[in-house]
Amino acid sequence: MAVERGSAFLLKIGDGAAAPAFATVAGLRTTQMSVNGETVVITNKDSGGWRQLLSGAGVRSVSVSGAGVFTGSAGEARIRANALAGTIDDYRLSFEGGDSMTGRFLVTKLDYTGDFNGERSYTLSLESSGPVVAA
């Protein structure tokens, strides 16, 4: 895998259509993604002292977080509306190499901060609901 720029790791939000068009959430300075999985242990007396796991079992999820400067973009407004309503929406993470991960996510955290004589910034956290598809 080639080295990629962090600035090309983008969070995008869908427009609400059945086949959504995605727009980049403006103002993000950092983005992070974690793929999580729970295991189902099937170790028994015949395992020879080694733990055995059941492939394809358990619960998988994707967590996304980001932080940036508030710009008042339409994408930021849609995220704020989703956070206030508890709405699950379509999101896409895109990478410099052209790969992406798309799925439905719930905004689990949205924080705004501002200092005197400084910019207004925000942090957000998203949790997947359903499958996340890599393309």
Write the layout of secondary structure elements.
Elements: E1 10-14, E2 22-24, E3 28-37, E4 60-69, H1 74-85, E5 88-94, E6 100-114, E7 120-128, E8 133-134
Antiparallel strand pairs: 1-2, 1-5, 3-4, 4-7, 5-6, 6-7, 6-8
Describe what you observe in this structure.
- The structure is a single chain.
- The chain has a single domain (6-134), classed as Factor Xa Inhibitor.
- The chain is 9% helix and 45% strand.
- It is built from one helix and eight strands.
- β1 (10-14) and β2 (22-24) form a beta hairpin.
- The chain is elongated, with a radius of gyration of 18 Å.
Predict the CATH topology.
Answer: Factor Xa Inhibitor
The sequence of SSEs as H and E is EEEEHEEEE
Helix coverage percent? under 10%
Number of strand segments: 8
Major sheet: 8 strands, antiparallel
Q: Give start-end ranges of low-pLDDT stretches.
A: none
Beta-strand content bin:
over 45%
- State the end-to-end CA separation: 16 Å
Q: How many domains, as an integer?
A: 1
Global outline: elongated
CATH architecture: Irregular
**Helical run tally:** 1
Radius of gyration computed on alpha carbons: 18 Å
